[in-house]
Each structure stands twice: as structure tokens, then as C-alpha cells.
Amino acid sequence: MNVKNSILILAIAGVSLMGMSSNVVAQSAITPEPVSLSLKEGNFLIDPQTALSFPDEDERITALSKYLNSHIKKISGYTLMTSPASGKKIEFKLLANEANLGEEGYKLRVEPERLLISANSHKGLFYGLQSLFQTLPAVRTNAPLSVPCMEVIDYPRIGWRGMMLDVSRHFYPVEAIKEVIDLLALYKMNVFHWHLCDNEGWRLEIKKYPKLTSVGAWRQEVYGSVFYAKDPSINLNDTYLYGGYYTQEEAKEVVRYAMERNITVIPEIEMPGHSGAALAAYPQFSCNRKVQPTPNSTVVNGVTGNTHVNFEYCAGNDSSFLFLQDILGEVMAIFPSEYIHIGGDEVEKVHWSKCKLCQMRIKKEKLKNVDELQSYFIKRMEKFLIANNKKLLGWDEILEGGLAPSATVMSWRGEKGGVRAAKMKHEVIMSPSNPLYFNRYQAGPDGEPHAAKHSINTLERVYNYNPFPDELKADDIAFIKGCQFAIWTEFIPSLEHLEYMLLPRLPAISEALWTPLKNKDFGRFTHKLNQWHYRAWQQKGIRFHQGSFKK
Ligand SMILES: [Zn+2]
Fold it and tell me: Residue 277: which domain range?
């Protein structure tokens, strides 16, 4: 069989070719595109006679072999033999620190009698498997599991490849989170930043403060309302209870599930702003201590009627800090990540300007204004995190009024904040809303579900994003540690809708962050989507956008 035919088998994934046979290009569907990939003559056939061979003294590799076996079983019904046998074999091999592969790289060599995945660590082996999965059918089939012979050498361009998901505005149960994590893993992303609380809902059980979830996880929501809609036909009194939260056991399960897939979960506990739900549960930590309901989607820019809702903790009250430290204590016991995200964005400070305690704090600490009060707040929390061997991560507003000494900045208002922080020798994660907020339109807006309008973040714009700004010198570029896309969920009430916003932009950002620039090719990328990925999602019942090729 020649190379072209073997690719056809790769492409068919057990179903028809959709008319691609005459002009299909000899390539694999592996996304993100590897550093190097060469296709060879012939195929490796996975069938009940295929054995799986791995160093069995290594627990993590044993776990990977189970993961592979369960995938093969899911798509074919058969189980690979794990006893060493002569004949066809899938082999895992750990290498002795091969220089160019790094911690996450892998080599995949497919020959007619042997399929070998080798890497310096289990992380690389895991990514080798993800590439292998993309050469196989995505769902149960009776067709042969035929992998084209090939030689792949692969490793990422950027070390931190993340996604932020807001579960406050809309809540997604653990099973939905696991599906998102599976998609991230398939595309070799390695950070899941979990935005666990905001004005409209607190989503993590905190044992010392049960009202955070018994009160703060629930809001009276208005029928027919989407966030920020000003539809006069909506009856604001016509409400229903909306909400949900994760128990600590569930959150630990997500951490474990993600870790098995080489994904670090970074929790975000917002402060000092965006804390309306926490202050509905514990009003004593706001400036005016007024009792308020958990804010719903009719609160616009912090105002309802003529009232400014409490979104900010009182920065003059020491109890606010102790409250947050208790919370972070429980959070750190659940999430082993090196970083804790403390938000720090869009602090309105309107109550701080009028609050006696806040004004006293400004005076006592010799601060110039409320901006410096915010900086005081973040620096005080940073000290607490450092004392607990954690690093502080915050949105770029934490630059205002002076940056905490070792903070890492997540740049969302364009790249400016990131550039400024990198020049100050602070670590940076680039996440500019344009083009990396996937809650924004990807096409349209005609014919698309309601989305954030600020920019249209098309597939191609996402694909072309490069997180290293030209204006930075090499020394400063070294501080750009990574890049994330974000999904804020005001307009995204269901998992199905979330999938639609995520796909196909997820593989686009994955290729933008993983693949060497010289290997990127948008035409080839979209061909791969058509060749394997769209069909795989469709077969699994995952909703996706058909792909806007508009710039
Ligand atoms: Zn105050």
C-alpha cells in the first residue's frame, strides 16, 4: 500500500470519505501540527493480537497503558494484551533526558510490526498518545484500526498553554468540566484556570464559611434575561432560583482527573472586587455592611435601581483579610498548583472612597489614593501566599498603584499590561481579550447565538495569534511564560453552547502555542479540521461552529 492510500485509511475513520479521495493531501490530521512528521509506507494494525509493552515498575506508565487500553476498547471493543508477546506491539519507553524533547516532548515511531512512543517523562508519553488517537477513529467502529507508518518528533513551543473558564455567571457540573478537560488534553493544553467565584455566584464549598455556598451559590435570576440585556418586555419580578457549586471532594476529583491528563488546575478566588456573591453571604466584610441578595444578571455595572451593589471587600477592615486567608487556606489544601489566581480586576472603589475604615487605612499606610489601597490589598494577600509557598497570579489591573513584588500578571486588556510587567521583570501570561476571549463572536454576528460584541475573534485571528510582542527585547520576552484563552459565560447557559464557543477555536490556539512558527499553515490546519476533527466531534455529539474562514 502506498503512502497516499494509507492516509486515506487515516482519513476515513471508519466512515465515508465525503468526496475527498481524489484530492486528499498526504498528511496526518494530528493537531497541533508536530515539529516534524514524516509519513512512511505501510500501516500498523491494532487488533486483538496486538500486545502492549511498558516498563511495569512505573506506576504512572501503568496508568497510561490503562488509559490507552480503555480508549482502544471504547473505539473497537477489544482489549490489548499486556503480557509481552512476540509479534505486533505498542511500546512505551522512557528516555534518559533527551535534550530537544524537554519535559513534554515525545517521539512516535510507527512501523508495520511496532508502534513505539518514547519520551523523557510520562507527560510526553501522554502527548504521544493524543497524537496516536488523532490517527484513529474517534468512536466505536468495526473498521480496522489502522495507523499509517510514520515518524514524529514533537515538543511544544510555549510551556504554559491554558484556558480560563468562568463558572460563576453560569454553572457547569463536574461531568461537563471533565469533558472540557478531555478536549484540552486532546489538543495538548496544560493549564485549566477555574474562575470559581464572581458577583453572580460562589462555586466552591468552603467549610469554615458555609453561607458562601448556601447563600452565595444561588441567585434569583430573571426569566428570559441574558446578561446586560435591556429588554423592556422582561418582567424583573418574574424570577427563578439559579445556581450550584462544587463540593471540596468534587474539586479534588477535577484536580486528579486533570493531573492524569497533564493539566494543572489553577483556582481563581476573586478579590478585592467581583465579590458580590461572597458579600451577599457575609455582608460584614463590605464597606457599608448592607445585606444584599446575590447579584443577578439585571445588575448592570454594579448598579441596580439607584443603588451601588457591594462588589468589593472593605480594605480597611482587617477581618476581610482574615476571612480571605481562611478561604485561601482551604483552597490551597484542594489545589496543589504553584499559582493561586486572586483576580484583582475591575475594582470599582466607589465604596472605598466613602468608607471611614478604608480612608483610615489610606492615612495610616501613607497611601496616595484608592489605587494604592488596591495595591496594598494585593500586596498583603501576596505576603500570605508567599508564606504558604504559593505564587500570586492576577489580572493586569494589579499593576495599578504599584505591582506586588513577585506577582505574575495575566494581561487581558490587550498586551500593554503584559509588556509593562515583562519590562519590570515580572512573569506574564498573555490573554488579550482580542482575539483570545472565546465568549466573543467567532463569525456573524448574523446567524450566531448572542455573544460579546467587542471584537469578532475569528478562527484565523486566533490561529495567527503570537504571544511574544515585537516590541519586547529578548531579555524581556523570557518573562512571557505562556498564554491563555478565556471563556466568560454571561451568555453561555449550557455545555452545548460552551462547546460551540470553544470549537474549533481550541485547536487553533493549541497550534498557535505548540507548533513552531515555520510549520504553521492555516490552509493545512483547516484541511485537518475537515479531515478528522469535525467528524470526530460530530460522532461524539459535541456541538461546534462550522469554522469561519473570514479574517
Ligand atoms: Zn471600607
Answer: 160-540
